[in-house]
């Protein structure tokens, strides 16, 4: 199962980097925000997408705060979640998966807390 998850989160990580970089090269979000009027920029679906993203970040942040005993390390990853979204989530889980020792499984990734 952990091998499948390494490939799965690796695929998500690489595909999100591709999507973000290719979209950024094609269209600058900050330029779009300047040219749109506020009614178009905060269209219902855009506002819903922002809310959905940050609600998801809040849930994942609670999990990371639980997992990480170091406030600095936990704070770093929560900041990365807010700034990079799925890229940071996939990176965090990939790092956790690759840290597994022989015989360890998903419990160590998702439930067990780390040593300080």
Summary keywords:
116 residues, mainly alpha, 0% strand
Question: Roughly how many Å is the radius of gyration?
Answer: 17 Å
- If helices are DSSP runs of H or I spanning 4 or more residues, what is the number of helices? 7
Shape: elongated
- Strand portion: under 5%
Structural class: mainly alpha
Helix content: over 70%
Number of strands: 0
- Roughly how many Å apart are the termini? 27 Å
In the predicted model, the low-confidence regions spanning at least 5 consecutive residues are: none
Helix-strand pattern, N to C? HHHHHHH
Overall residue-averaged pLDDT value: 85
Describe the biggest sheet?
none
Brief account:
The protein is mainly alpha-helical and 116 residues long. Helices cover 79% and strands 0% of the residues.
């Amino acid at each position: 199962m952990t091998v499948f998850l390494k490939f799965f989160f690796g695929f998500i990580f690489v595909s999100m980097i591709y999507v973000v970089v290719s979209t950024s090269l094609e269209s600058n979000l900050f330029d779009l925000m300047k040219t749109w009027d506020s009614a178009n920029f905060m269209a219902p679906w855009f506002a819903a997408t922002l809310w959905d993203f940050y609600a998801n970040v809040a849930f994942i942040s609670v999990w990371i705060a639980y997992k990480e005993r170091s406030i600095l390390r936990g704070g770093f990853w929560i900041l990365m979640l807010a700034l990079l979204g799925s890229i940071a989530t996939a990176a965090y889980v990939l790092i956790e998966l690759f840290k597994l020792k022989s015989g360890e499984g998903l419990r160590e990734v998702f439930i067990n807390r780390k040593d300080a």
